[in-house]
Design a protein that fits this description.
Length: 134
């Protein structure tokens, strides 16, 4: 299964939309692009494998695997990229500004449910990050 994340790069944050085929799953917020700098930038465009992961901080969440020059890049809830993200991606229900959104936990649970369903069936799940074209 392949999810497509179409991004729009803005000065204060990166906003996006995740699609599964023609179905919109959720919006996303990230840090602005800053040359893939650790804790200061969103990750590069490309195709990444998604895995299940558990931590005390986030519980069960989604790991974005094998990001160049980065580690522990996750999907987890957050509503304000500049204050709550260190390079990870936060699903949100709607966008409220550059790198800002609302109802992140609800959007995260929807995305996690879809990803985990495919993984539990033994299927690989990929995230393909692209620049949004007009």
């Amino acid at each position: 299964m392949e999810l497509i994340l179409k991004r729009m790069y803005l000065p204060e944050g990166t906003n996006g939309k995740i699609w599964l085929q023609q179905q919109l799953i959720c919006m996303t917020i990230e840090l602005p692009w800053n040359d893939n700098m650790i804790r200061k930038s969103c990750i590069p465009e490309g195709r990444y494998s998604l895995k299940r992961r558990f931590s005390e901080r986030f519980g069960w969440h989604i790991l974005i695997d094998l990001v160049p020059n980065r580690s522990l890049i996750l999907f987890h809830p957050a509503n304000y990229a500049q204050k709550e993200l260190n390079g990870c991606i936060a699903p949100v229900s709607s966008l409220s500004g550059e790198g800002k959104g609302i109802d992140s936990r609800k959007a995260f649970e929807r995305l996690k449910s879809i990803v985990y369903d495919y993984l539990q069936r033994g299927e690989e799940v990929f995230l393909h990050i692209q620049k949004q074209t007009l």
